[in-house]
Amino acid sequence: MIHEENPFVKVLDSLAEASPFADTLGGLFFNPAYLAELGGETVWWMQKGRSVFESRFRQDKPGDCSGAEEELPLASLMTALLLERERG
User: Fold this and answer.
1) What is the C-alpha separation between 59 and 12, in angstroms, rounded?
2) Residue 69, C-beta contacts closer than 8 angstroms, at least 6 positions apart
3) I need a surface site. Which of 4, 43, 52, 72 has the fewest CB within 10 A?
């Protein structure tokens, strides 16, 4: 399961993107983070990094999972983040 760490940050980020001037500065202040859970345990964490013109993401692997178990959450999270990056 993939979900946002703090949904309120995502709402503020979306509102900033809708405004012509706040869109440029929104990437500096609103950085949504996403969690990927496998079996109720967080196995990946990714956060949109601070930037003005481009989207970069930081990642961390707080959970303990083996090679085969980490492929599905990582691929799912990367797909979701690429879709988010397309949005802005």
Assistant:
1) 21
2) 38, 43
3) 52
Task: Give me 39's structure tokens.
Answer: 């079996």
d(CA 43, CA 72) in angstroms, rounded, equals: 11
12: number of Cβ within 10 Å:
16
The predicted model scores a pTM of 0.69
Q: What is the DSSP letter of 39?
A: T
- On whether the CB atoms of residues 65 and 39 are closer than 8 A, the answer is no
Which residue type does 88 have?
A: G
For 2, phi and psi rounded to 5 degrees?
-115, 130
* Residue type, position 3, single letter: H
Residue-wise pLDDT for 44-63, tens only, equals: 888 877 776 666 778 777 76
| Distance of alpha carbon 47 from alpha carbon 17, whole angstroms | 17
Cβ(73)–Cβ(81) below 8 Å: no
